[in-house]
Design goal:
Layout: H1 2-17, E1 47-56, E2 70-74, E3 77-79, E4 81-88, H2 91-99, H3 101-105, E5 107-108, E6 117-123, H4 133-144, E7 151-157, E8 163-167, H5 170-178, H6 195-202, H7 207-217, H8 223-263, E9 269-275, H9 287-296, E10 298-305, H10 321-338, E11 343-346, H11 351-360, E12 363-370, E13 381-387, E14 392-395, E15 399-400, H12 412-421, E16 426-427, E17 431-439, E18 446-454, E19 462-472, E20 477-487, E21 498-506, E22 509-518, E23 524-533, E24 542-543, E25 547-550, E26 566-567, E27 570-578, H13 582-586, E28 588-595, E29 602-607, E30 609-612, E31 618-626, E32 633-643, E33 646-657, H14 687-700, H15 705-712, H16 716-725, H17 729-742, H18 746-757, H19 764-776, H20 780-791, H21 798-810, H22 814-827, H23 832-845, H24 848-861, H25 866-883, H26 889-901, H27 907-918
Helix pairs in contact: 4-5, 4-11, 6-8, 7-8, 8-9, 14-15, 15-16, 16-17, 17-18, 17-19, 18-19, 19-20, 20-21, 21-22, 21-23, 22-23, 23-24, 24-25, 25-26, 25-27, 26-27
């Protein structure tokens, strides 16, 4: 709890004075940076990092400048510019990234942000009541021109004032702006004394000005009355100046606190300050603010609002309006100039100025300036930057401060808090984070599960300091935690990063999850993810998020959700349905799909199992999809929910197919008809089969006329008796075994047929029925052994080969099938039943090259057989992938014909195979 409280306090403090933090890495805002703890670049010598804005006459950023184009002087001495990196914000790229569907599915710090940090600040004591309204309306329009990656904060200072921490929620920012009215009020006195005059009288003892004021304000007075009026003028002047000085002190303190809050956030920031003036005693009053702005890498652009002379809140026009206004302007001009910003005069709404600022904040130069030993003394050093080009304006800070080296190492918790306070991702440790929302079983609250991938793929388990905070829409911390945890790769997958799972139960609403880690060497990683925890309880119909993961091969798969789970062969999926009406849930159906992308056609489709949940108003949905036919790569899993035949929702999640997929032997065997057919004992007793086998018995026993006549009449028991009377025990055992088999008495049949077939299984008819008896009893291996020995090298009835092949396939021995069927297929290549088994065996063994001619031959006779069409394209894809072949045009034409002819459920998958083969 203490750690959680520390996070809450730090973030709350950041949100308070952070309302003015900004992310503007702008072209014209290239500010001279003042690093506090060390050089930014490493090029053999220590360098000072100086960010500088260079704009042309149209306020457009100037590009293609090189180090020799810059002249940098520090304390009047020219220094060598070692590097000049042009940093440019790509707004269109940021918009494309925001439109990427993957951005809504997970958040990562792996991509550098194309966003800027922008603070819009209002000096409440420097603006009349209602004076900022027109300008803030323009600021609202300015927000609409920013990129989705920009983060904006808003603050009205000094306190109390509206504060909105860095966010991309423009509506929240606009609502905050609407609440600002300004707190400056004109000084109320009995005399009309200008501020310029009051300062001259109370602080400078200017007798001339005093005499002029007394002459004007104490007309026709003499004696005691005049003396009292003179004392009142002095007193009122002192009070007026004291009020102004106090307002200035309060405003500078609020601005300084804002700079300190921004200093803990990495990266350059732009502050847009709205004010009507700032009256200083001396410019040195700004030193603390300017130094803090330099350390925080904040550029202050001041929007100076016009003060109308016909202000109805003022009883009469002041006597020194021009002088007073000059003092107000000079203070803000010094502030902007000292912080590498500009002063803009605003008349009206200021829309043109905001548009200009939006362009100027798009790029800057980061200069690497050679450092000397005396720079790192903790004192301010003047810096001057020029560009050796005409008609350009250079904006840089007036000074920088470098602190001395420190050997104090911050602990992991402190380092983690810095990462959590950043309004952007911190990428020293790679992170990807996603969230899942479900209904809390014990209440109507939302259960948020968050999953993270931490670090590079692979590696041994490692201890990390891990923390998160969950902020509500008002920036309040509602949950958080920091602890040390050993993270490891899920399921031992070699090419996956370490993972983390956590959860929190909150009220439904919109939240921002800040997640961060620190590894053992002190490197940080952090991301910010927006979380919509929808209200799921008490709704007419609602869906929980889709959870997916590797289902393994067990009978009861358990999935571990992740950012982009890695799946070997089987994809497991789970979600929950909620409704106040159980009848609606009963009408709902769910199908799981795998597709190449979020909106693409399904490659694989499978039904889901819908079961009753913990409550009558809840259903759980789960299923497993085999992904073994898919090539390895990235895919989207989808859950398609329908109700009364209409689509009620589609949920998506990405995953990576990591397994061998279609390269695995046997992947296509379920698609081969007959390859795993269950043995039907009746097939051995069809009239044609019995007649064929009895004919073979007659050839073996030519003198056995009577028993054969009885057997052909179906009287197998009588045939057995006659054969036994005739003295032929083997024939008698065969007929008796056949009799038992026909009656389903398998144990008795085995006894007689074993005796008849002999140890060498040279009595083929007896061996055939012995194998059939074993197969009928589910003893496929015994059946196949008998049949294979009986077939030998002789040509046997076609059924013997197919039954042997089926038994071997059911027993998982496709190699034996090939040994038996290959010679048979060569003798009768048009035999479809043999071809089917041989195809299946080749595919199960992964011998795709040998399967191709069998598949093509079959399709020449049956060009619309969908199973074989699928297998043919599949096998050719395997050959092309394994051998890295570029297929000839004739083969591609043939495959295209197969794909067009296929009308089954895997049209999209076959088209994908063909596309991949064409692209080789």
């Amino acid at each position: 709890m203490k750690k959680l409280l520390a996070i809450a306090l730090v973030l709350a403090a950041a949100a308070v004075s952070l309302a003015g933090q900004t992310q503007t890495q702008t072209q014209t805002e290239t500010q001279t940076q003042t690093p506090v703890q060390g050089p930014t670049f490493r090029t053999g010598v220590d360098l000072i990092a100086v960010d500088v804005a260079v704009v042309d006459g149209k306020s457009q950023p100037v590009e293609n400048l090189l180090p020799p184009d810059f002249v940098v002087k520090i304390d009047g001495v020219q220094r060598r510019v070692v590097s000049a990196e042009h940093v440019k914000i790509d707004v269109e790229a940021a918009r494309r990234e925001a439109a990427d569907p993957f951005q809504t599915l997970y958040t990562t710090n792996l991509k550098p942000s194309n966003g800027r940090q922008i603070v819009i600040a209002v000096d409440q004591l420097g603006i009349r009541f209602g004076g900022a309204r027109p300008l803030l309306a323009s600021a609202s329009k300015f927000l609409d021109r920013l990129s989705p990656a920009d983060r904006v904060a808003f603050v009205a200072f000094p306190e109390p004032g509206v504060q909105v921490a860095f966010t991309d929620d423009h509506l929240r920012l606009k609502r905050g702006m609407e609440r600002v009215v300004g707190r400056q009020s004109p000084f109320a006195g009995k005399f009309n004394i200008g501020l310029y005059e009051a300062i001259a009288i109370s602080e400078k003892a200017d007798s001339r000005v005093f005499a002029e004021v007394v002459l004007r304000e104490c007309p026709r007075m003499s004696g005691f009355a005049r003396e009292q009026c003179e004392r009142d003028v002095v007193s009122e002047s002192s009070n007026e100046v004291r009020d102004v000085r106090q307002n200035t002190t309060d405003s500078l303190r609020g601005l300084y606190d804002l700079m300190l809050a921004l200093s803990v956030i990495e990266g350059p920031k732009t502050l847009i300050l709205l004010s009507e003036g700032l009256i200083l005693d001396t410019p040195s009053e700004l030193d603390g603010v300017i130094r803090a702005a330099a350390m925080a890498r904040v550029t202050i652009n001041v929007l100076l609002m016009d003060v109308p002379r016909d202000d109805i809140t003022v009883a009469q026009l002041g006597p020194t309006v021009t002088e007073d206004r000059d003092m107000q302007v000079s203070g803000l001009a010094d502030l902007a100039g000292g912080s590498r910003g500009s002063l803009y005069y605003i008349v009206g709404t200021g829309e043109a100025i905001f548009e200009r600022l939006a362009g100027e904040m798009l790029a800057y130069y980061m200069l690497g300036v050679e450092q000397s030993p005396g720079d790192r003394d903790g004192r301010p050093h003047r810096i001057d930057v020029e560009v050796q080009r005409r008609n350009v304006t250079v904006r840089s800070r007036r000074a920088f401060v470098l602190s001395g080296p420190t050997t104090t190492r911050r602990n992991a918790e402190e380092t983690l808090l810095d990462a959590l306070k950043s309004p952007f991702g911190v990428a020293e440790v790679p992170l990807r984070v996603t969230t899942f929302t479900q209904k809390d079983p014990a209440s109507d609250k939302a259960r948020i599960v968050f999953a993270a991938e931490v670090g590079q793929p692979g590696g041994e388990p490692e201890e990390f300091t891990v923390g998160y905070v969950l902020l509500d829409s008002e920036g309040t911390v509602v949950a958080g935690n920091v602890d040390k945890r050993v993270l490891s790769v899920p399921n031992g997958v070699a090419n996956a990063p370490r993972d983390y799972l956590g959860e929190v139960v909150v009220e439904p609403g919109n939240y921002a999850l800040r997640f961060g880690v620190v590894d053992s060497s002190g490197r940080r990683g952090g991301v910010i993810r927006e979380v919509n925890a929808w209200k799921l309880g008490g709704e007419e119909f609602a869906l929980g998020d889709l959870l997916i993961g590797d289902a393994g091969t067990g009978a009861e798969p358990r999935i571990r959700p992740g950012v982009e789970p890695r799946v070997q062969d089987n994809l497991g999926a789970f979600l929950e349905l909620y409704s106040t009406s159980p009848g609606l849930l009963d009408k709902s159906k769910v199908e799981f799909e795998i597709a190449d992308d979020q909106d693409g056609p399904a490659l694989i489709t499978g039904p889901a199992q819908v079961a009753a949940g913990a409550q009558p108003t809840q259903r759980t949905v789960q299923g497993v999809l085999s992904a073994s036919l898919l090539p390895p790569g990235r895919y989207m899993a989808r859950a398609r929910i329908t109700r009364d035949g209409n689509v009620a929702g589609v949920l998506v999640r990405p995953f990576i197919l990591d397994g061998q997929g279609v390269t695995a032997a046997g992947a296509a065997s379920p698609f081969m008809r007959g390859s795993v057919a269950k043995f039907d004992s009746r097939i051995a007793m069809t009239p044609q089969v019995v007649r064929t086998l009895l004919d073979s018995v007659e050839k073996r026993f030519p003198d056995m006329k009577g028993p054969l006549e009885e057997a052909r009449a179906g009287r197998y028991g009588t045939a057995a008796v006659e054969a036994l009377v005739g003295g032929d025990q083997a024939a008698a055992a065969f007929f008796k075994g056949l009799d038992w088999y026909s009656k389903g008495q398998l144990n008795q049949a085995v006894t007689q047929l074993e005796l008849a077939a002999g140890p060498r299984r040279d009595f083929f008819a007896a061996a055939f029925y012995l194998g059939a008896t074993f197969a009928a009893a589910g003893r496929d291996r015994d059946a196949a052994g008998v049949w294979q020995m009986a077939i030998g090298n002789e040509a046997r009835p076609q059924l013997a080969y197919t039954l042997l092949a089926d038994a071997r396939l059911r027993d998982g021995q496709p190699a034996s099938v090939i040994d038996v069927l290959k010679p048979a297929y060569e003798r009768t290549p048009a035999d479809d039943e043999i071809a089917h088994r041989l195809m299946a065996a080749y595919l199960m063994m992964g011998r795709y090259q040998e399967a191709l001619p069998v598949l093509d031959g079959y399709l020449s006779r049956h060009p619309t057989d969908e199973v074989v069409l699928f297998a043919a394209v599949f096998a050719q894809y395997q050959v092309a992938t394994r051998e890295r072949l570029v297929l000839p045009a004739a083969d591609l034409t043939k495959l295209a014909r197969y794909v067009r002819a296929y009308q089954g459920p895997y049209q999209t998958l076959l088209a994908k195979y063909l596309q991949l083969m064409r692209g080789r």
